[in-house]
Amino acid sequence: MVNNFGYIRVSTKDQNDDRQKFSLDQYDIPKKNLYTDKLSGKDFNRPAYKRMIKRLKNGDVVYVKSIDRLGRNYEEIIDQWKLITKKIGADIVVIDMPLLNTTRSKDLLGTFISDLVLQLLSFVAQNERENIRQRQAEGIEAAKKRGVKFGPTPINKPDYYSEVIRLFNKKQITTKEAADMLNVSISTFYRWRKK
Question: Per the residue annotation, which of 11, 40, 66, 105 is the catalytic one?
């Protein structure tokens, strides 16, 4: 029996996956066969993706909205494509790119065209990932030049810090009590003491 699967990926938990779900709704995919990851596409170390791969069998079909939803690492996309289509024997349908539909032409020419388009689009997906990284680095550098500080805002020690340390050193209060008196976490208290 052939099963249809849908794979959805967004890069962060805050991103909305409705657009991808809507695209997959037109195919006969049971809810139990819909897999969603809210993780980067830099590699395939994603829990939902791995669960889906374990369930795939020869003849099954995986639907994905676009190739970059599958991943953004050129070599890994190619490897995963081969795993699904050659090793497992399942098919892949990339909705936004009809040429990447292995359910259609299974002859030599169809396979060649599909593999060629896959290589091109995988390259584009990885290139976009690298461009995103470069734009992000440039944005951070520009922000630093404008004086923007990154990381947590340092907490200043209160005036009564030395009195709390004195009580702590005399073992009159515990670490938790000292941190509570200073209105900071235990790790911040330890960090202050280390300095």
Answer: 11
